[in-house]
Amino acid sequence: MKTTEENKVSRRQFIRKSGLGVASTTVALHAPFIITARADPDSPINIGLVGCGGRGTGAALDAVNAATNSIYPESGYHTENAKEGARAAAENVKIVAMADVFEDRLMSSREQLRKVGMEVKKELCFVGFDAYRKLLEIHEINYVILATPPHFRPLHLRAAVEAGKHVFIEKPAAVDPAGVRSIMESGRIAAQKGLTIGAGTHFRRDNAYRELAARVHDGAIGEIHSGVARWLGGELWYIEPENGWSDMEVQLRNWNYYNWLSGDFIVEQFVHSLDIVNWILQSHPTRAIGIGGRQVRTDPKKHGNIYDHFSVQYEYPNDITIFCLDRQINGCTNRVDNEFIGVNGRASFSYRKTGTSVKDGKSWRFRGDRNNPYQVEHDEFIESIRLGKPINEAQQLAESTLTAIMGREAVYSGHEIEWDNALHAAQDFSLPSYEFGDLPVAPVPLPGKYRFA
Description:
This protein is an alpha/beta fold. 37% of the residues lie in helices and 18% in strands. The chain has two domains: 4-203 and 373-392, 3-Layer(aba) Sandwich (Rossmann fold), CATH 3.40.50.720; 220-369 and 400-423, Dihydrodipicolinate Reductase, domain 2 (2-Layer Sandwich). It has helices at residues 4-18, 54-69, 80-83, 86-91, 103-115, 131-136, 153-162, 177-193, 207-217, 247-253, 259-262, 265-268, 271-281, 300-303, 373-387, 394-413, 419-423, and strands spanning 45-50, 93-100, 125-127, 143-146, 166-169, 197-199, 224-233, 287-293, 309-316, 320-328, 335-342, 345-349, 355-358, 364-365, 417-418.
């Protein structure tokens, strides 16, 4: 049987080898804190994982590793605040319960956690559509990770906040305006209760992006007048259906191909790029118009009812225009970046090259070691809980999600969509009930015929 010290080291080594833990350097978080009474830095962080797929498992491992980053200097995460109570924290961060609609996915995730010395009791593993409620009933859980398909996040966030839990919620926050409004309201409830809501918009934790954002906000490229956001990549995973799977199971296991579950990939994936735009412009768009379609991924049995390319033009306050290109088609040029053009130059946000090109003055490029923003998310959220200074990113995440929904609906409908109309639209993808069985797939939206309501 391994000792506690051996478990700490093996956990750190496993995450490094798996690529989920790399050196990180944190800088000051720009978003304001909501100040509450100081928490005990040695108090346990007991985590409940809701959604045990790849992203949920990765988030759980990052959360488990958050405490060890405060102990080992080579991790690069060694702020003065993090040092306080670090060793006790490492002993007191653990996954205590798990929930998923599918038992096989939960068991696979549980095995991954076991490899890093985190044993979750079988009686605290819950399966089914109501599994999240059983998990939230566990009193000692105080930090919940929500990593289900996006459709379920508004429902799960509200339940977690009402149960008095701190929450890490993956992006996007919702798939429709009704869900966005629910997220905003959950954020207000969390603020009243002094709870942390941390969002999975991890680019805001990238140390290079943070430094560049600070420079842009300080006027490095002058007043911004336009920009471009690109996420040009290939197809994602697909799980071949097995005999006996109902319509609901097929769609849940391949949730990214159904817009009621994912919001389409402009919402599920491109929300990252749009979140950067909102962050840099410190606003949300006023209107959107665009084109797109389904040119290559046309098999309804495999690709559901989502598109494979979007092109959206967003208008922001102060006459700023942002052009967005989004694609999931194999065999094409791939590029993921954001650029902002100002009167004195431009700023480029990219993993390969992040910096500014300035017309009059000295250009700058980030040349330091990049951190792991997925890890820093949990480092900072858990630290905020321990310090009694909760972070609340619900509104920020809701606005970025609605920005993506606006773009989707502009393309689907072929009409210009305004922010207020999108925010107050009646659109709600909720089902009357959630159970395995028949579930017809909605038609692929056709511009000129489809209507956004």
